[in-house]
Write a structure and sequence with these properties.
- The complex is a heterodimer of chains A (200) and B (130).
- With 200 residues, chain A is mainly alpha-helical.
- Chain A is 70% helix and 0% strand.
- Chain A starts with a helix and ends with a helix.
- A four-stranded parallel sheet of chain B has the order 2-1-3-4, sandwiched between helices.
- In chain B, α5 packs antiparallel against α6.
- The termini of chain B are far apart.
- Helix content of chain B is 48%, strand content 15%.
- With 130 residues, chain B is of the alpha/beta class.
- The chains are: A mainly alpha (200), B alpha/beta (130).
Chain lengths: 200, 130
């Protein structure tokens, strides 16, 4: 992937996360500890600060470096989780970039996040958005369709009961709120698809 | 370097980490290697992998170190910190599934008595409901 596109993708995702700080914080205040917005903003800001160094690397290495920034700077559980996603994606990045190769790398990254969080689909987490979105990509869906799948998947976390993370302390009271990690994942997917639409 | 298992305390709050370490010190004095850390990279509530790695180094013992953590992010960040240690140290740094204060005190008391890392962990984990 050319470095201009890598820069555009990372920059746009980071800026969107920074802009969504208040919304993510509000979602996390409802069922967690209220730090998701500020933590993602801290991570995104650190990535933007180091962006020049990141984009001069080959794509796989650039993803690993971005993931490492999140791991070191976020300060909450979302750092290791998003960091693991990007570091594993970078490690599995295909030599020739096509749909099947990308889907395979994303599936490997998803498995790594499941292991890191000791979690799986259906537990009201980011996995509930990433799983269906990656499946849609693998199934040959368009960017627009993938965006719609991710949006519906984030909304589908509202009636779920959390069994992992701080939200699980609330038990049934976690039902009725969108999971903040599912929302931040959906936001990233929407922004990535939008940027990619623009270059098609 | 002490031959006793080291104890590392990781909390979202720097004050909780320090207070827990004070209580451990009161029990075992300076015979057990002990380090604590808390707070995110900006100093707010949260945890910081770089600080966790530094705390593990500070409390390092050839007998290993037992980590005590409070909530989810502290555990996840501690797992990442352990994976970033030199390879020969990774198996000798373990996170104990135990309540922070009680676990650290029970674990340190075991360590003070010369228990192995596995014994320290097992004793601390007895405090957790099965």
């Amino acid at each position: 992937m050319d470095s201009d596109l890598t820069r555009k993708l990372i920059e746009t995702v980071a800026q969107s996360l920074i802009a969504a700080e208040e919304e993510l914080t509000a979602l996390d205040q409802a069922i967690g500890d209220g730090d998701h917005g500020i933590n993602m903003k801290r991570g995104a800001t650190a990535v933007l600060d180091g962006l020049d160094g990141i984009v001069e690397k080959p794509t796989g290495e650039a993803l690993k470096a971005t993931g490492m920034q999140l791991v070191m700077k976020v300060g909450g559980a979302s750092g290791p989780l998003y960091g693991t996603l990007l570091m594993s994606l970078g490690k599995a990045w295909p030599e020739s970039l096509d749909r099947a190769g990308l889907a395979g790398a994303l599936e490997a990254a998803l498995a790594a996040v499941k292991a890191r969080g000791k979690s799986d689909l259906g537990q009201k987490t980011m996995l509930d958005v990433l799983g269906p979105a990656i499946e849609a990509l693998a199934a040959g869906k368009s960017l627009e369709e993938i965006t719609a799948v991710a949006k519906a998947a984030a909304e589908a976390t509202v009636p779920m009961q959390a069994v992992r993370g701080r939200a699980s302390f609330l038990g049934e009271r976690s039902i009725g709120h969108m999971d903040p990690g599912a929302r931040s994942s959906q936001l990233c997917i929407a922004v990535i698809c939008e940027v990619l639409e623009g270059v098609q | 370097m002490s031959d006793k298992v080291g104890i590392v305390i990781v909390s979202h709050s720097p004050e909780v980490a320090r207070g827990t370490a004070d209580m451990v010190r009161q029990m075992v004095g300076t015979a057990v290697p002990l380090a604590h850390c808390g707070g995110n990279p900006d100093g707010g509530l949260g945890t910081d992998i770089a600080k966790i790695i530094a705390a593990i180094d500070e409390a390092w013992s050839e007998a290993g170190v037992a980590l005590f953590v409070d909530l989810g992010g502290a555990e996840t960040n501690s797992e990442m910190a352990i994976e970033m240690l030199p390879e020969d140290r990774q198996a000798r740094a373990v996170i104990c599934n135990a309540p922070l204060v009680e676990g650290a005190i029970m674990g340190a008391t075991e360590a003070w008595g010369g228990a192995s890392l596995d014994e320290v962990r097992a004793t601390a984990e007895e405090l957790s409901p099965a």
